[in-house]
Design brief:
A hairpin with a 4-residue loop joins strand 8 and strand 9. Strands 1, 2, 3, 4, 5, 6 and 7 form a seven-stranded mixed beta sheet that branches. Strands 8-9 form a two-stranded antiparallel sheet. The protein folds into three domains: about 260 residues, no CATH class; about 160 residues, no CATH class; about 190 residues, no CATH class. By secondary structure, the chain is α/β, with parallel strands linked by helices. The chain is elongated and about 115 Å long. It is built from 31 helices and eleven strands.
Length: about 650
C-alpha cells in the first residue's frame, strides 16, 4: 500500500534541496529559522524509510575525508548491473539495495548549501552516479569527494572522455598542463587510485550496455523507479560534535566489515514510530522501555546453549544480532510461498515486511507495540521449548541435524497443544529414521540396513539421538553446543587387528600397545603368558627389521583374537559395533581391539579432560550388557545388549519389530 505521507515528505525534502540557494539569500532571520524548522521536521520523518533512486536525484552528497576512496572492482559493478537487469518490475515490486547511511548538514551549520554526508553507501551511490552519467541522464544527484579534489573533478568532467582510451596509462599520458580542463589539475593530480577505479568501473559499465539485448531505456526505468535504498538518516547534532558522530557511525559499520543488520534497522524503525510528536517524557520512557526489552531478549539469545538449540551448526554464526531470528520467524511465515527469485536473496526481507506494516498503519505507535508484542511472544515460545526437557531434545535434534528449520517448527506449533506438538515432532523424527533404515529392496524398516559405510551424516545422527536418549532417561540435558563445536567420527567398538602395517614406526607403536594390553588385568592369566611368549618371539626375531617375519606376528594376532574375540567380516561394520567419538580421539585409536580402546578412552577423559559422549562411555563400561564376566573383549552378548539399547532408543519414536514404547 502506497503511503502518501512519506511520499509527500520526500517531495518536500527534495524541494527544499532544490531551492536551497534561494533560501540562503532570505534576509529575514525569522524566515531562516522557519525554513530550518521545516527542514528538520522533514528530516526527522525521513529518518528510516525506503527511497527510490528517483527520490534522491535532487540531492547533493559528499564523502568526507575520514573515509576510504572508491574501491569497487569490475565484478561488483557487473553484479549490480545484472541484478537490476534481471529483476522483474512488471508486478510493481522493487529491487532493494543495501542500506545507505546518511546525515544531513544544513546550510546554517556548514556555510554552504545543504548536503547529505554519505557515511555508508558511497560505493553504490558513486556507481549509480557513473551509470547515470553513461546513460547521459543529466538530472542526477551530485557527489563531492573531500578525500581528493581531483576525484570530484574527474567524475564530473573527465569520465566520459576516458572511453576513448584502452588503457589508464594512455589517458594519463594524454593529459598535460595546457590541455587540462582545470588549470590546477595536471596528469600527476589525476593519476591516483580513486580515479583509476572510477575509470575501470566506467569502462565496465560501457561494455555491459553494449551487450546484445540490453535496452537502455528499460534498464534506466528499472533503476530510477523500481530500485530502492533503505535510507537510514542519522539525526543532525551540534556541528562541534557532528564530525565525531559521523566518524563513530562509519567505524561501527565498517569495523570488521559488519553491515547494518535487519534487527538494527527494525529497531530504529520501531523507536522512530513510537514518538508521535516531539520528545515528551512519556515518549522517551516508552522508547527506553522498548530498548530495555530488546536488550533483554538479545542477551537471552546470546546464551550459547540456547542458540545452539535454535540453529544448525551450518548457520550458527549467520546472525550478528540474534534477535534477527525472531523477525525472520514472523516475516517468512507471513510471506511463505510468495517469494520470487529476488526476495529469496533479499537480505532485508524482514525489514521490508515491518516497514510495509507501518506504512499501512493509521496508528503507527499502536502498531509498533502490537508488532513488538508478537516478537516478545515468539521469544517466550522459543524459551518455553528450551526450558521443557522433552521439547528441548526433540526440537534440538531436528534443528541441529538440519531436518527442519526452527521457522518450520514455529509454524508447526501454531495453535497446537504442547502434547500435540510433541507428537508431531516425534513423527518428523520417525519419518527421518525410516529413511535411514529403509531396506530399498524390501521397502521396509531393517535395523541392519544402516552400517558403517552408510551416509555418514545419517549414522552420526543415530548416535546423537542415542546419546539424547541416555540423557533423557537420566533426566539430564544433552548439550547441543558441545556437539556443534566439535568434529565427530564413527568408531568401531571392536576392530579387527590389522594384518598389514606400512612402516617401522607403525610396527613399533603396535608392539607398545600390545605390551600395554598384556600388562593389564583384562586378559585372563591362563592365556596371558602364551600371548606374551608369542608377541616376544615375533619381536626378537624381527629386531633388525620389524616388517619381517609377518607370519610370526599373524600367529600372535590369531591367538589374541581367540581370546578377545573376533567379529565376522560381515558384522564388523554393523551398527551394534559402532559408537560416536570426537574426531581427535578417533584418529588416535586406530584399528585396535576392545580392551585397548577402552583403556585409551578412559585415559583421554580422566587425564586429558577430553569430552567423551555418555553413550560411548556406557558402551565401553558394558553398561548395556545383562551380565559382565570380563572387560577384555566385546562379546556377542555385549553386542546384543547394546543392540537392544539402540532399538529401545528408536522405539521412542517408532515401532521396531512390534515393540511398543
Amino acid at each position: 500500500m502506497k503511503n502518501t505521507t512519506n511520499d509527500s515528505m520526500v517531495k518536500i525534502e527534495n524541494l527544499i534541496e532544490r531551492y536551497q540557494p534561494e533560501f540562503e539569500n532570505v534576509d529575514s532571520s525569522e524566515m531562516q529559522a522557519f525554513l530550518k524548522e521545516i527542514q528538520n521536521l522533514v528530516a526527522s520523518n525521513n529518518t528510516l524509510i525506503l527511497k527510490s533512486v528517483e527520490d534522491v536525484l535532487p540531492l547533493h552528497f559528499f564523502v568526507d575525508d575520514y573515509q576510504r576512496g572508491y574501491k569497487w572492482l569490475p565484478q561488483q559493478v557487473t553484479e549490480l548491473l545484472n541484478d537490476i537487469n534481471e529483476f522483474d518490475s512488471s508486478k510493481g515490486e522493487f529491487y532493494c539495495l543495501q542500506p545507505v547511511v546518511v546525515k544531513h548538514h544544513s546550510a546554517l551549520n556548514t556555510g554552504e548549501k545543504g548536503r547529505w554526508e554519505l557515511i555508508d553507501g558511497q560505493q553504490r551511490m558513486t556507481t549509480i552516479f557513473m551509470i547515470l552519467s553513461y546513460l547521459e541522464y543529466n538530472d542526477k544527484y551530485t557527489i563531492e569527494y573531500r578525500t581528493r579534489k581531483s576525484s570530484s573533478v574527474f567524475l564530473n568532467e573527465y569520465l566520459p572522455s576516458t572511453l576513448a582510451f584502452e588503457q589508464w596509462d594512455d589517458f594519463i599520458a594524454s593529459q598535460s598542463s595546457d590541455n587540462t580542463a582545470d588549470e590546477s589539475l595536471h596528469a600527476a593530480d589525476l593519476d591516483n587510485v580513486d580515479n583509476y577505479h572510477f575509470y575501470t568501473a566506467y569502462k565496465t559499465i560501457a561494455a555491459w550496455f553494449t551487450q546484445p539485448g540490453v535496452e537502455k531505456t528499460v534498464w534506466r526505468n528499472k533503476l530510477l523507479k523500481h530500485t530502492k535504498f533503505i535510507w537510514y538518516a542519522a539525526r543532525e547534532e551540534n556541528e562541534s560534535v557532528d564530525r565525531l558522530q559521523s566518524i563513530d557511525i562509519f567505524m561501527r559499520i565498517n569495523s570488521g566489515k559488519i553491515p547494518l543488520t535487519n534487527a538494527e534497522l527494525i529497531k530504529a524503525l520501531f523507536l522512530n514510530n513510537v514518538v508521535k510528536q516531539g520528545k515528551s517524557e512519556i515518549a522517551l520512557f516508552r522508547q527506553s522501555e522498548l530498548g530495555l526489552q530488546w536488550d533483554m531478549i538479545e542477551h537471552g539469545l546470546q546464551d550459547e546453549e540456547f542458540w545452539a538449540f535454535l540453529s544448525p551448526s551450518s548457520q550458527s554464526s549467520d546472525h550478528t544480532t540474534r534477535i534477527d531470528l525472531l523477525f525472520e520467524l514472523r516475516s517468512q511465515a507471513i510471506q511463505s510461498g510468495k517469494h520470487n527469485k529476488h526476495s529469496e536473496a533479499d537480505e532485508f526481507t524482514s525489514f521490508r515486511f515491518y516497514n510495509d506494516k507501518l506504512l499501512a498503519a493509521i496508528d503507527k505507535e499502536k502498531t509498533v507495540y502490537d508488532l513488538w508484542h508478537e516478537v516478545k511472544q515468539d521469544y517466550y515460545r522459543l524459551l518455553e521449548w528450551y526450558k521443557n526437557d522433552d521439547l528441548y531434545h526433540l526440537v534440538g535434534f531436528i534443528v541441529s541435524r538440519d531436518i527442519c528449520s526452527v521457522q518450520d517448527l514455529w509454524l508447526l506449533a501454531d495453535r497446537k497443544s504442547k502434547s500435540d506438538f510433541k507428537r508431531e515432532l516425534k513423527k518428523i523424527i520417525a519419518k527421518e529414521l525410516y529413511g535411514y533404515f529403509e531396506n530399498k529392496e524390501l521397502g521396509q524398516f531393517d535395523f541392519d540396513s544402516l552400517h558403517y559405510n552408510s551416509k555418514r551424516k545419517n549414522v552420526i545422527s543415530i548416535f546423537i539421538l542415542f546419546n539424547i536418549s541416555v540423557h533423557r532417561t537420566n533426566k539430564t540435558r544433552f548439550s547441543f553446543k558441545t556437539y556443534r563445536d566439535m568434529s565427530w567420527d564413527i568408531e568401531h567398538i571392536h576392530a579387527q587387528q590389522s594384518k598389514e602395517l606400512d612402516a617401522v614406526k607403525q610396527y613399533q607403536a603396535w608392539y607398545s600397545d600390545q605390551q600395554t594390553l598384556l600388562a593389564t588385568n583384562h586378559i585372563p592369566e591362563a592365556q596371558k603368558q602364551q600371548l606374551i611368549e608369542a608377541l616376544e618371539h615375533w619381536y626378537s626375531q624381527s629386531q633388525n627389521d620389524l616388517t619381517s617375519h609377518r607370519e610370526l606376528r599373524n600367529v600372535y594376532i590369531e591367538l589374541l583374537e581367540s581370546v578377545v574375540g573376533e567379529i565376522p567380516d560381515d558384522e564388523v561394520h554393523g551398527i551394534d559395533n559402532l559408537c560416536l567419538l570426537p574426531s581427535r580421539v578417533n584418529r588416535s585409536i586406530g584399528n585396535e581391539v576392545f580392551a585397548i580402546k577402552r583403556e585409551r578412552i578412559i585415559n583421554y577423559e580422566r587425564k586429558q579432560n577430553l569430552f567423551i559422549p555418555i553413550g560411548t562411555k556406557n558402551v565401553f563400561s558394558k553398561f548395556y550388557s545383562d551380565s559382565v564376566s570380563q572387560m577384555y573383549k566385546w562379546s556377542e552378548s555385549d553386542k546384543q545388549g547394546y543392540r537392544n539399547a539402540l532399538k529401545g532408543c528408536l522405539n521412542y519414536y517408532l515401532d521396531v519389530e512390534g515393540n511398543e514404547e
